[in-house]
Amino acid sequence: MRAVQVTRLDGPEALEYGEVPDPSAGPGQALIEVHAAGVTFPDLLLTRGRYQIKPELPFVPGSEVAGVVRVAPEGSGLAVGDRVAAFPGFGGFAELVAVDPQAVFPLPDRVSYTAGAGLPMNCLTVHFALVRRGRMTSGETVLVHGAAGGVGTAAVQLARALGARVIAVVSAEAKRETAREAGAHEVVLAEGFRDAVRELTGGRGVDLVVDPVGGDRFTDSLRSLAPEGRLLVIGFTAGDIPTVKVNRLLLNNIDVVGVGWGGFWLQRPGYLREQWDQLTPLLEKGDLDPLLAGARPLRDAAGALAELDERRVAGKLVLDVR
Description:
CATH class of the largest domain: Alpha Beta
Order of helices and strands: EEEHEEEEHHEHEHEHEHEHEHHEHE
CATH topology of the largest domain: Quinone Oxidoreductase, Chain A, domain 1
Low-confidence stretches: none
Largest sheet: 7 strands, mixed
Number of domains: 2
Number of strands: 15
C-alpha cells in the first residue's frame, strides 16, 4: 500500500512517501480502507519525537481517518462496507490502517469522507472539554482562543450548537472570517482581547475560556473570566507552558481545568463511542461540520504538516488518500 512514514525525527521534512507492506488486523482489530486522513498537531509533534507516544522508527503517523471497513471482527458491531470515521492514534497516513473497534464510529451519510477525517481528534477533544470538564450549559458565554485553527473552529461550532454565545480570538485580521464561518458570534484579535471581552460582556467576563494556545495570553484569559468561570487548558501550541498564581483563583472563585482527553479515554475505551453517539445528532443536522482548510494529496503530507507548523492553516487540513 501507499503510505507516508517518519524515518527520522527532524520534523515534517523527515516524512517519506512510498510503498510499505499492508497492515494486518490483529486479534479483535478492524481494518479500515482509508479514504481521507486528518492532519493534527500531535502528528507534527510525532515527527520531532516530542509527543508522549514515541513509536519506533520508521512509523506511519496519522491519528484520525475516514473510510470503509474492510475487516470487521466478530461481535464488534461493525460490518464490512460500513462508512466510518476512526481514531487509530497513529498509522492513518496510509491506504489501510488497523484500529480497535471501540475507536471506530459510524459516519452519517451526509458527512463526506473528507469531512469525516476531520472529526475524531478535534471534535471529541472539545466535547470532552466543554461538556465533561467545563460543565458548559446553554446560555453561557465561551471565549475560544486559536479560533481559526482545527481545535478552535471545532470548539466554536460545538459551543454554539450547545447553546453558548461564542467570542472567538484570532491572531490576525485575515483569520476573522474563518472564525465567523465556524459560527462565532463575535471575533476579536488576540492583541488586546481582554479589553474587547470586557466591552462585549458589559464588564462581566466570560463563563468559559477554551485555550489550546497557552503562552503569554494565559493571565489575561484568567482576568477575562466571570465569577465562577472556568479556563480549559487544552494545549500549548504557542510553545510556552504558562504558570498561574493561585491567589488569582481565590479572587473571583475561578477554576483552571485540565483537559487531558487522551489520558481519560485510554482508561475508559467505551467513552469514545459514548461521545460519538452524543455528537451524531449534531452531525446529522449539519450543526457540526468541520471547517476545512483544504485537502492535500497523501504524497504532500510533509507540506501539509509544514503549513501547520508555520501557522498558515485556517480551519482543518485533511489528506486525500484515495
